[in-house]
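Comment thread on ticket #2218

A.B. wrote:
> Attaching the input chain for the structure job we discussed in standup.
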Amino acid sequence: MKFLLEVTMDEGALAEDPVGELQRILRYWGGNLRHYELRAGDASAIHDSAYQEVGRWSVEGQAG
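C.D. wrote:
> Ran it. Output below, let me know if you need it in another format.
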């Protein structure tokens, strides 16, 4: 299986403060992942601090 995190960095809050926004996104999702089983097919949209969708994370593939 693969955990994929894809974030577009060339618009909005990420373009203005890429390091700060990525830190915020990683902190938020690092803490929030406990609410998911992290099985193939799990996924969610990722939003910046202005609540604009900037990407998504997903779990792909099969275990074993």
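A.B. wrote:
> Thanks. Noting for the ticket: The helical segments are 12-16, 18-32.
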